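Quick check before the chapter quiz. The format below is the same one you will see on the exam, so make sure you can read both the input and the output lines.
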Amino acid sequence: VSLVLSLGATKDMGKMLGGDEEKDPDAAKKEEERQEALRQEEEERKAKYAKMEAEREVMRQGIRDKYGIKKKEEKEAEAQAALEANAEGSLTRPKKAIPPGCGDEEEEEEESILDTVIKYLPGPLQDMFKK
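Here is the expected output.
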């Protein structure tokens, strides 16, 4: 059987059986070049996507300017500045807003409804209600 096998075939058999592999003298250099190529591709990809995102942001800002829309961060910054301005000079914490349905709001709504109804009444009846 061994006569049939060529010298190259016995080397391969030895590797499959767990023998020593041939050491490639340039293996470390090739691996380093491969890693460098991967890093370079990753940098190019990041640059490409950063450029695309910058173009999108320019377009978004144009739309915001056209329609008067503010970025979320700008809205939050303005709200924080307004809150700080209200609290300036105060030693206590800022007061919380009155929850809806409390206070004089109900009366105001009734008045506005009454005013609306009065507007649609004929002239003599309007005069009666205004007095």
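If your answer matched, good. Helices lie at 7-16, 27-67, 72-87, 105-119, 123-130.
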